[in-house]
Design goal:
The complex is a heterodimer of chains A (228) and B (228). Chain A has 228 residues and is mostly helical. In chain A, 79% of the residues lie in helices and 0% in strands. In chain A, helix 2 crosses helix 9, helix 4 crosses helix 5 and helix 7 packs antiparallel against helix 9. Chain B is mainly α. Classes of the chains: A mainly alpha (228), B mainly alpha (228).
Chain lengths: 228, 228
């Protein structure tokens, strides 16, 4: 790798790179934690949205459809600013970390809701009819009949969103909520040497995201299609 | 509410957003075609190059690529960074990222064209270039349009990231207005500022979505119209 830098007339300082690796790794860990909390919120919220979207009441269904569409079509970054700067004026003060995971969860909740929807629609009509015939309550129908069949088919899609969310989590820098990018950036601005921290960050980031993506693709191949 | 001057600032930012999006989408499309087609080459080396590009371009994430391009690359190349440099770096980073996702869309689109079509072009003794241009790509385009539409909306949303490296796009103008109103007497709620920015982004994505739906109908009708 030094060779590539040398071609451009730049000398990469390995000692410096080694020295800054631990703090950047801590930043990576913060990004991973934010992703895990965010995806948990996103998975729960997505399920709620998907179920609301199937409501028989139009006054519920219709706004939900538009809220999903609106959140999906606007940038996560602006949504984070909205949550962090606008919510306090409406009486909701959130710490940067909470604002970050709420933003990630909300944004990806709209994506996961579409996957859940497809999963729920794949459950055969007869299953619903049988539940009605057995006089099961809606709560039992959902929790015992429909969701246990729908959720396994959604797992590979959720895995994809987990990987995507990890790639968005460094946006934490915009509201100072920690993370790998904030660490690399603050080292760069403290030492006036940006190449090493950003290179270390890029390599660490790839070392997590590529294996994660490959694993999800394996899951997809293994489980995705057989239930068709 | 927003004053005329404030709204003007947002619109100026929106114009920068449009420019970044268009340039990044053009670059991303070129890269997508090159690496997507390369991924189907008979030569192992070309396939491997395409694979590495796709994994790195997607795995590194738009934001990490963007910071690398804006802050590390000028130092490595030993050039002075300015507004124009950052603008171009932003476009290149977003374009590379889009190209990674786009290459997969192109590759799977081409793979969806029945094998018999390729065999027929070989039987007709067409050159590789003509095979792609007149037979395979036109059919693949029809399949590629819907995922490509989604991808471009993701890229449009991704342009908001450039505000973090100092480009005055829509998001950055909204941030500026928020900071300005905080020190002025005449206060515009940040709800209005970010709300307007979100609505502008929403309109842009809806226009894009409509465009791709129109394209799908138009191209789909044109090439599949004669199918018996």
């Amino acid at each position: 790798m030094s060779w590539i830098f040398a071609q451009a007339g730049f000398s990469f300082d390995w000692d410096y790179a080694r020295e800054i690796t631990p703090p950047i790794a801590r930043g990576l860990w913060e990004t991973v934690v934010a992703t895990l909390v965010g995806i948990t919120i996103g998975m729960i919220l997505g399920l709620v949205l998907a179920m609301l979207r199937r409501s028989r009441i139009r006054a519920i269904r219709w706004p939900v459809v538009w809220i999903i569409e609106f959140i999906r079509s606007t940038p996560l970054l602006v949504q984070l600013f909205f949550i962090f700067y606008v919510m306090p004026s409406l009486g909701l003060i959130l710490s940067p970390f909470v604002a970050l995971v709420v933003g990630l969860g909300l944004h990806y909740g709209t994506y996961t809701s579409e996957s859940y929807r497809a999963g729920i629609e794949n459950v055969e009509r007869g299953q619903w009819e049988a539940s009605t015939a057995l006089n099961l309550s809606p709560a039992t129908t959902w929790s015992r009949i429909v969701l246990p069949q729908a959720i396994p088919t959604v797992i590979p899609a959720l895995g994809n969103y987990l990987v995507s969310m990890f790639k968005d989590a460094p946006l934490a820098i915009a509201i100072a909520a920690g993370g790998i990018l904030l660490q690399a950036q603050s080292i760069a601005s403290r030492t006036f040497r940006p190449v090493e921290p950003f290179t270390v960050m890029g390599l660490m980031f790839l070392a997590v995201s590529i294996p994660a993506a490959l694993f999800v693709r394996y899951l997809e191949k293994r489980y995705g299609y057989e239930r068709g | 509410m927003l004053s005329g001057r404030q709204f003007g600032a947002l619109l100026e930012g929106a114009w920068i957003t449009v420019q970044i999006f268009v340039f990044a989408a053009v670059l991303g499309t070129i890269l997508a075609l090159i690496f997507g087609i390369m991924g189907l080459s008979e030569k192992r080396l070309l396939r491997a190059i395409s694979r590495v590009y796709v994994e790195v371009a997607r795995g590194a994430s738009a934001i990490v690529l963007l910071f690398y391009a804006a802050f590390a690359i000028p130092i490595i190349l030993g050039v002075r960074s300015g507004n124009t440099f950052v603008f171009v770096a932003g476009i290149i980073a977003l374009g590379i990222n889009m190209g990674g996702y786009g290459a997969e869309v192109v590759r799977t689109g081409i793979q969806s064209v029945p094998r018999g079509q390729t065999e027929a072009t070989i039987a007709l003794n067409l050159r590789v270039r003509d095979r792609l241009r007149h037979v395979i790509l036109p059919q693949a385009f029809v399949v590629m349009i819907p995922p490509y539409g989604n991808l471009s909306i993701e890229v449009l949303k991704g342009t908001a990231l450039v505000s973090l490296v100092g480009i005055s796009d829509l998001t950055s103008e909204a941030q500026n207005l928020r900071v300005q109103q905080a020190i002025q007497d005449n206060r515009t709620p940040s709800l209005v500022i970010f709300g307007t920015a979100l609505v502008i982004y929403f309109i842009f994505s809806q226009v894009l979505a409509l465009f791709f739906r129109w394209l799908e109908k138009r191209i789909g009708g044109k090439w599949y119209g004669a199918r018996g």
